[in-house]
Specification:
With 123 residues, the protein is mostly beta strands. The strands form two sheets. Strands 2, 4, 5, 6, 9, 10 and 11 form a seven-stranded mixed sheet that branches. It has a four-stranded antiparallel sheet with strand order 1-3-8-7, with no helix packed on it. It is globular, with a radius of gyration of 13 Å. It starts with a strand and ends with a strand. The relative contact order is 0.31.
């Protein structure tokens, strides 16, 4: 059974940084894509970034390019989201997701989800 557990959220001032972690367990993830999504109050869940487990290929939504970086540690079975130059509009619950696919950006395309971690950016 796949389990994804996020951590690292919190309260930070605008311009600050946070690093989110997603510990993955329950199977080997070769061939999987690991994604980060976020959902702000009253808004739909949106794609942030994703990485392929085996090759480490990455892709991002335009609003975070140059500020966020996704990476993974195969040894620790963990995916990270380094978030720099945070803005108040980055405030949301951030979710880790996984699917046996590539290039997908819709939440509907991801089969496995974590419980989420809150990120709040104050102005």
């Amino acid at each position: 059974q796949v389990q994804l557990v996020e951590s690292g959220g919190g309260l930070v001032q605008a311009g600050g940084s946070l690093r989110l972690s997603c510990l993955a367990s329950g199977r080997t993830f070769n061939g999987y894509t690991m994604g980060w999504f976020r959902q702000a109050p009253g808004k739909e869940r949106e794609f942030v970034a994703a990485i392929t487990w085996r090759a480490g290929s990455t892709y991002y939504t335009d609003s975070v390019k140059g500020r966020f970086a996704i990476s993974r540690s195969e040894a620790k079975n963990t995916v990270y989201l380094q978030m720099n130059s945070l803005k108040p509009e980055d405030t949301a619950i951030y979710y880790c997701a996984a699917d046996f696919s590539f290039g997908k950006r819709s939440p509907r395309d991801y089969a496995y989800w974590g419980q989420g971690t809150q990120v709040t950016v104050s102005s």
